[in-house]
Amino acid sequence: MRSYQPEKSLPPALTLLASASAGTAASVVTCPLDLAKLRLQTQLRLPPGVEIPEGHLHGLRDAMLRLWREGGVRALFRGAGARAAFHAPSTCITFTTFEELARNQSQAQ
Fold first, then answer.
1. DSSP string of 42-93?
2. CA distance 61 to 79
3. Has residue 103 been placed in a domain?
4. 3-state secondary structure at position 1
5. Which letter, b or e, does each residue of 10-27 get, where b requires 16 or more Cβ atoms within 10 Å of its Cβ?
6. For residues 22 and 2, what is the distance between their CA atoms, to the nearest angstrom?
7. Which tens digits make up the pLDDT trace of 21-63?
8. Which domain holds residue 87?
9. What is the number of helices (H) and of strands (E) in the chain?
10. Residue 71: inside a domain
11. What does pTM read for this prediction?
12. Band of pLDDT at residue 109, cut at 50, 70 and 90
């Protein structure tokens, strides 16, 4: 475990802000991949030997290209706001809790 250095730590309010920003940025940047993965996961699974029907996705690259053809950048980032609204608070809670526990453990020793 890393040693806690109080002079290098952020105050809790800045930890909240930094972690919310990081969670938001990460969820927006990964939105196209998450959307393509979701489409692959929700399409019907075909048994072996069955002819692949028209419109069936063949992998991540195919899903990304289909999204691009459907609406360009807008289609790739569809739902980014909802993802950010979900991930920012959970990242905030996780990192702020970790930092505060590390600070308290360091002070107890």
1. HSPPPPTTPPPPTT---SHHHHHHHHHHHHHHHHHTTTHHHHHHHHHHHHHH
2. 19
3. yes
4. coil
5. eeeeebbebbbeebbeeb
6. 21
7. 999 999 999 999 999 999 999 988 888 888 878 888 888 999 9
8. 11-43+53-108
9. 4, 0
10. yes
11. 0.73
12. low
For residue 65 the two structure tokens come to 């290209």
Looking at residue 46, its pLDDT comes to: 80
In a domain, 75, yes or no: yes
46 vs 38, 76, 92, 100, CA distance in Å? 17, 26, 40, 49
- Both tokens of 17, joined, read 């802000």
Residues 6 or more apart in contact with residue 32 via CB below 8 angstroms = 64, 67, 76, 77
Nearest to residue 38, comparing CAs of 78, 97, 70? Answer: 78
| Residue 5: inside a domain | no
User: For the chain, what is the domain count?
Assistant: 1
